[in-house]
Amino acid sequence: MSGSDINRRDFLKFMGLGGVGAATLSGCDMPTTITLEEGKEKVVAYLAPEEYAIPGIGVTFASTCKQCPSGCGVHGRVREGRVLKLEGNPDALNGKGLCQMGQASLQGHYNPDRITQPMARKGGALEPVTWEEAWKLMKEKASGAAQGRSAWFTGTVSGHQSVLLSALNKAWGSKDHYVYEAINNAVGEAVNKSVLGDAAPAYRLDKAKVVLSFGADFLGTWVSPVHFSREYSKFRTGDRGVLIQVEPKMTLTGGNADLWVAARPGTEGVVALGVANVLLSKNQVDGKQLPQAALDVISQYGVDKVTEISGVPGDTLVRIAKYLNERSPSLVLSGESAHGHANGYQNAMAAMMLNVLLGNVGETIEASNSMAFDELKAKHGNSKAMLDFAAAADAGKYDVVFFTGANPVYTAPDHLAMAEKVAKVPFKVALSMFPDETTMAADLVLPLSSPYEEWGTSVSPYQPTDAAISMSQPLMKPLSAETKSLGDILLSMLKYQGIKDYEGFDDYYAYLRSELDGLPGSVKAGKDGDEFWSAAVQRGVIKVPTKAGSLKVNLGDVSPGGHQSGGDYPMHLIPSSNQTMYDGRNANLPWLQEAPDQITKIFWDSWVEMHPKAAAKLGVKEGDFVRVESDQGAVEAQVYIYKGVHVNAVAIPVGRGHEEYGRYAKGNGVNPLKILSSIVDGKSGELATHATRVRISKVGRSEELPRLGGSEVQVGRRLVNTVSADVFKRTEGA
Amino acid sequence: MSLKNILENWSHYRRAHEEGGHHEYEHMWGMAIDLNKCTGCNACSVACYAENNLPTVGKDRMRKGQGLHWLRMERYWDEPDLGGDDKEYQERGGSFLPMMCQHCNAATCEPVCPVAATYHTPDGLNAQVYNRCIGSRYCSNNCPYRLRYFNFYSYYEESWPEPLNMQLNPDLSVRDKGVMEKCTFCIQRIRTGKDAAQREGREVKDGDVVTACAQTCPTEAIVFGDLLDKDAQVTKLWKAQEVELGRAKQDKSDGELRGYRVLEGLNTDPCVMYMDRVREA
Q1: pLDDT at site B85
Q2: Backbone angles phi, psi at A49, to 5 degrees
Q3: pLDDT at residue A529 tops 90
């Protein structure tokens, strides 16, 4: 318990002495904030208060946010038995801050469209059933599944849920656990693993003086945005670092760049080679760090050739190289828009080559210290898992599939025909909080409790220096008596399978207590079971020992890969991810639907971003509807025109256009993922999300854009003034 | 106050707040927002929705400008006549500006309220008394920052269908149709902080009160505190930037210091200081 020094017992004593009730409370020096809203709220009897209920006083409890895979620590403010507000947990990786997704995760917990009881498919439709019936169905259809004919399809999992999942799969003789995230860094991880021997090294933004990012939106959706925002704050203070962002559509990180560069989609690797070429030839950087094969490739990418392929002007390449050469250390990152191509791996490899050339490995890219308990580590999702699953389901490999924490029916492109392939699985179980597309396609739906109603442990996929287990604890009683935590359901299933190890545990809480009790003394720091548990729950994180990592450098082939021509489809489609909708999971949160997009300031709907020149060529103005058509289908949305998108590209945000998923999401906007072409990254097998080519046509309809604010510019009012970095360094530089 | 009086003593009225002495302030809550650190991520705005029972109004009403975002994140593009250049692309990114009520000490919204629903508190806050407000909207009309929001409808049923309503913060009311509302600097948190200090028999100290936006800010761009507290971080920031309350024009030793107040020339004397955005060249 933090945030209040009043102990519940003392408070009760005090109340007892005064012999007062709610009516006279306002007279004493306690906060005068007891509310009896319209007389409806019950007057709480002080002599027999409910747990947590200290009328008028908010108390904070630590837990973990599950709205995205980063797994930030939160402090939930609880008053009268309800959790009202979340803040960042200063002891966790994210520190004090929390992003808008984390803030809005409360609306997931209190969502009016949450599933409150089990449902089973009867005669085509999902109908409410009791838990007895649900377990009976599980017994009939699931537990009898033959060895190896079952699978799990989940989002990122970690901690003891992951342990139970593995145990369950083992019991059923299945190795198949598909871990899927539509927004991931899988291509980058593959390159990191290959070159450095560490899939997720520590990116030290705070140490860098120049950051060159090829589409890594580290302030928005890349890896661990809140953590990186805190690092960014240090990066921009004192001897202020320079941020250069190369991408086809301006992300939040791009919006904060000193130099934002639009490169033709898929040519990020070429730009990196061109920068290396300038560094070696013009800036006389020593190339001895690079293998001869890489130097040979680089020598072929002179400025003119790079400009021709990527559309990035020569003087811009020279400017980028100048920053990198003059300010050290630097850090080169690559993200979504560079990775999502047939040559995505090569793009990431070329970015890594710059890190090697500039000597950043070991400086701003450090070995991550991996945590000692392998079984608790995060299984971080990628999109290859979805492609593999689609193929396996299509081949009739499974009798039973369990879905949780992922919504492939919504995020899969139409060419995968995911709904049809899922339908081929005879018995599909969805363990879910919400009626999303995948859940509604299941045969049995088991209602999950929210992350703020359950006990749990988790481990963030990105833990750069310290390793920690994040604790989840209920911040309030479950809103619905019928929901169960994933841990409890897994434990019940294991017990049903007759696995001896789990028979002694009444529930997941008992299992967790016992597991944490069994942690080695070095973690428990001399505390006994109860004491250690209380400390862990109070702090929200358990720091655990790490194994020191090390980095090697083994640069692969840096040739940039071919660039496909569009043919009948001249424009590139950028299905951009942003923090408001993320991969679509936030679409049922009204705060985030109403929160204007960070760049375009559009709310409650989808839009198509176009460059003014492209818009003029097509003859459309802001608010006009256009049709964006690929070889897989078409979507229609309103145009937003600005200079933050490549002239040959259109960007449509991911996350809207749901066919299910409750009142706030359903029928609202369009889903650009549906029209993606069937292209994968050649090396990693990841879905090439940014490789689709489209043609644009006018629809002939127009409407005022749902956008915040009237003016895009300050019309001379100087609301935001800008000073140069030189001035900043002179007046405030450290 | 006759028209003649106003005209004759215009310069006195206009500059009266600079003379001081007409208020004994207990606190002067203020902010410093560093636009070098602010990334425009919008966490502050959503945190404000969560803390202050702000309703969501839906697409059509938002489009009509009826949204009730007490803290809105504005974004501007560079324009040629302000030093930006007319290149093919938006090379320097965007300009992000978190805008909430500036809690002006010479607030233009206060004198026009026919029922004194908007007034200045001894804490230096520009406060809104919902019970008094008759919805004339004069204050909103007079606010140069457009930071006052009117409840054109009752939102409490459609905005918080059960059980979303259970998230509502009982420390402040849910406003009904016909009432003007705006950022309060999280007055409920100020009250809680003051109550706690009083109970412990001490003065309110820096850090006792943090607004929802400042608390959630991942880059710590927003700093909140009492400008009368010499040791408060916010006071130090104001001092370092040589920005002072009660001055229409800041007299700085170094013209390149970054601190400024938005539309300072209007003489509204806001309690929110911003620090310039920074870009290479």
Answers
A1: 61
A2: -75, 155
A3: no
- The CATH number that applies at residue B213 is 3.30.70.20
Q: Which chain A positions have a beta carbon within 8 Å of B166's beta carbon?
A: 82, 110, 479
Q: Decide: A158 and A379 in contact? Cβ < 8 Å.
A: yes
Question: CA-CA distance, A497 to A485, in Å (whole number)?
Answer: 19
- Tell whether B171 is within 8 A of chain A (Cβ): yes
Which pTM value belongs to this model? Answer: 0.92
Taken in order of first residue, the domains within chain A and their CATH numbers are 119-179+373-451+475-518 (3.40.50.740), 190-366 (3.40.228.10), 571-702 (2.40.40.20)
3 state SS of A695: strand
In the three-class reduction of DSSP (H, G, I as helix; E, B as strand; rest coil), residue A444 is classed as: strand
**Least confident range of A125-129, A531-535, A713-717:** A713-717
Dmax of chain B from CA atoms?
62
Residue B72: inside a domain: yes
Report the C-alpha gap between B64 and B57 in whole angstroms: 10
With contact defined as beta carbons under 8 Å apart, do A731 and B259 qualify? Answer: no
Q: How far apart are CA B107 and CA B111, in angstroms?
A: 8
**Residue B8 forms part of a structural domain:** no
Contact A233 B221 (CB under 8 A): yes
Question: Residue B108 domain-assigned?
Answer: yes
Parent domain of B179: 24-275
pLDDT score for A2: 46
Q: Any residues with CB less than 8 A from the CB of B96 and at least 6 apart, and which?
A: A255, A256, A720, B35, B38, B39, B40, B73, B74, B75, B277
Mean pLDDT to the nearest integer, A707-715:
86
Is the Cβ pair B49, A103 closer than 8 Å? Answer: yes
Rounded to whole angstroms, what are the CA distances from B202 to B121, B198, B205? 21, 6, 8
Neighbour-count burial for A501-533, b at 16+ CB within 10 Å, e otherwise: ebeebeebbebbbeebeebeeebbeeeeeeebb
* Count of the separate structural domains present in chain B: 1
